[in-house]
Amino acid sequence: MKSITMKLRTLALPAIAMLSLSVCVLAQAPQATPPPPSAPRTVQFPKPIEKTLPNGLRVVVVQRSEMPLISAQLLIKSGGEVDPADLSGAADMTAALLTRGTNTRTATQIAEAVEALGGSINSAARWDSSVVGVDVMSSRIGAALGILADVVRNPAFKDEEIDRLRRQYLNNLKVALGQPGAIARFAAARLVYRDAPYGHPLSGTPESLPRIKRDDITRLHGMFYRPDNAILVIGGDITPESGFAIAEKYFGDWQKPANELPRMTMTTPASEAGNRRILVIDMPDAGQAAVLAVRRGINRGSPDYFRGIVSNSILNGYSGRLNWEIRVKRGLSYGAGSALDTRRWAGSFSASAQTKNESGAEVASLTLAEISKLASGDLPDSELTTRKASLNGGFARALETTGGLVSQVSSLAIYGVNFDQINQFVSSVQAVKAADVKNFAATNLNIDSTSLIVVGDAKKFLPELQKAFPQVEVIKASELDLNSATLRRAVSKN
Description:
Helix content: 40-55%
Structural class: alpha+beta
Largest sheet: 6 strands, mixed
Strand order of the largest sheet: 1-2-6-3-5-4
Number of helices: 16
Mean pLDDT: 91
CATH topology of the largest domain: Cytochrome Bc1 Complex, Chain A, domain 1
């Protein structure tokens, strides 16, 4: 009897296993149609409180007490756009050097002091601003802010640190200039901004970096690093009163220079059909081709800002139209997307993908076609709702951390945008209609005035590209000049 029972159990085990596997497979099988996103929820982020010190320093404090952490950023309202014409990369080098030694601390001592606080410090230039930031526990914010004030106000700019940083920048640039995607991005800036300040690479060029000397760096620091050109944003487990007090302690005696702050205006070329360029940068040894469509965009203060970011969200992201058409449907790329870069003056819009050299022309045409459809094709409510949900979700996730909240407040402060926009973001996105997207695309994303860049082994895609774009111009990678709006190295007359 016992033997019969054991046999029955043995026979039953495979059946049970198969049934369990079937249930598991059914449970894991994806739905044919994903559920629609739920209705967006209103989120209230803490309200920033601000005060301007007598020396002109604007101080912004945003209190969030859930965690005993503080993030602080000192922003200079000048970035790569103030680089002298022949010294691109100077502002970025100046910012990066701040944490590499002061009049009283070496770079190693700065790093050790911040590490002893359990914190971190970083500095860099961007377009329109230069930033030094610290992240630390709230109980140690005083010591951390003391270090931040020291590196901003008293940098040593030692020659050995300048030379070391220059070598790092040149090495990074050498690597970048071997990558089709990086070359396309560098060239895109010149196509949009030409010789205007935004046109040069933020981190410099192989020709400009060796020209930057200590005097250039100290001159730039003295000209722009001043309290009436700065904003201090402190966020986290701190009250506004405490934030203002600590700002006064470490920055209250920062003297405002007697001379006026240099003022600059920027005229950026309009994107017009006559200014459009179809450019091939020939890299015979490139394993793949980079395709990039680019044109002038909008500035951060534009009333079209929310229409713009919603329009871009239709094209961008894994489920965006570009990736769906180029990667998912056709398998021509590992990823395709777009970006709407807004700045103090005009920003830019770009769409990009990397593909096999042989499919470079096809991907270029597909990219422009998808941009064009945004203005002329249908935009179903189901698609618009999903892309809005993705946009709102990304915004909320970015604000989950103290550092993310401070970065968002800092961006609004730099561009003079009302802080209320943080809590109005979701409703502003939801207010954008399909007609708004189509109108924005028709006005601001017209492909007839959008330039196109393809970087790769030209012999494998140029004939096909010329069928669609007879006006193609070709520049050999060895003759590329990022210091000029023409992008062509001048021919020596000797």
